[in-house]
Amino acid sequence: MKQLRDTVWKRHGTSWLWDAEALAQVSTASEVWSLRQFVQASVHWPEDLPSNDSNTLVVAGLDGCLDLLSPTDAEGWLASAMKDAILSFQEFYDGQAALVFWLPSCAGRITINSATDAVSWRCAHPNAQENIDFGRVLWGEAHEYPQEIVLRAGAKAAGLFHLRIT
């Protein structure tokens, strides 16, 4: 998978972050929206976003929702409600804003198959042996994206970035 050391993820596209240092570069805790706020706003987006000089919206809670649902229900919910909200965000801001999902507990839960760049989400207990095909559901396995966000040379991935989901 390609690595991204550019800061484009702070201003454009959709990212899934699990690194606190990366989060601090775009938002403060008081600016983070709940997943509920995000879904509700998808019918009427605000002109100004709360973070990064109005360039970024950070959303927390996606990981908790995925953990509460069965793998089948989680995949269906991602493919419908979440993908629709992400597409709505992209369309409203015409790709000129960043949507960041804060996933503090998922550094080891998002797995990337190095041979295929397929991205999966490892489910929580009691379904810990199952995975959700995250990439197929959210971006249809467009392998030119996502890219691993790397804050500095030699550092571990801080998250994943996708410029435009279709």
Q: How is this structure best described in words?
A:
This protein has one domain (3-162). It is an alpha/beta fold and 166 residues long. The strands form 2 sheets. The protein has a 7-stranded mixed β-sheet with strand order 1-9-10-2-5-4-3. Strands 6-7-8 form a 3-stranded antiparallel β-sheet. The chain has helices spanning 20-24, 35-41, 62-68, 71-92, 134-139; strands at 3-4, 13-17, 33-34, 56-60, 98-102, 110-112, 119-122, 131-132, 147-149, 159-162. The protein contains 5 helices and 10 strands, in the order E-E-H-E-H-E-H-H-E-E-E-E-H-E-E. It is 28% helix and 21% strand. Strand 7 and strand 8 form a beta hairpin. It is globular. The longest helix is centred in the middle third of the chain and has 22 residues, at 71-92.
Largest sheet: 7 strands, mixed
Structural class, from helix and strand content? alpha/beta
Please tell me what the overall shape is. Answer: globular
The tally of domains stands at 1
Taking all residues together, what is the mean pLDDT?
Answer: 93
Radius of gyration from CA coordinates:
15 Å
Descriptors:
166 residues; alpha/beta; seven-stranded mixed beta sheet; three-stranded antiparallel beta sheet; 5 helices; 28% helix
In short:
By secondary structure, this protein is α/β, with parallel strands linked by helices. Helix content is 28%, strand content 21%. It has one domain.
